[in-house]
Write the structure tokens for this entry.
Amino acid sequence: MTLPHATRTSRPNKPKLTREAGPIGIAVALGARDVEDRGNKHTELEALHMVRTLVPMVLAIVLTAIGLLHFIWAFSYWPMKDAITFTKALAGTDDGRMPPAPITLLVGLALIGGAVLTLMVNESLPAIGPEWLRLAGMYGLTLVLLVRGLGGHFMNAGAAGEFQQLNTVLYSPLCVVLGSLGGIVAVAASRR
């Protein structure tokens, strides 16, 4: 005596429930669906794991790098050859006057603080302060980055040509991407 079997669809590993399948075939098909459901849940968990690990790490690394650049720029025009080239490309002016060091240091400190906040919200670093305040800070960081990125066009008015070009192709899009990553981190933390 042969056992009835489940008929198959175009996908070879997914048995189809039919009346001809019989009780054993139906059980096999239900088991295959259970395995498929667990596979989908596994994929969802992998995606969630990526959101909770990779996204915050990328955001924190980029914010830290940009913050360190601001620390360097408070005292130097590196990597530009001179102050005029620096101010044309990074400050939007062509007068060669470097931005005030205290302001540049504060921007660098804020960027590195944003990186630390990202890691605290993500629970990669020990948290300081109440959770609601860290979350509000993360949403604030997201908002600032998105406003800078989306409002970058307005910064081009009257700015040096070099700055306008770099702002259009690099600075503003980078801020939008970083703001989006910050939003992902904030929303993921809100849903825990």
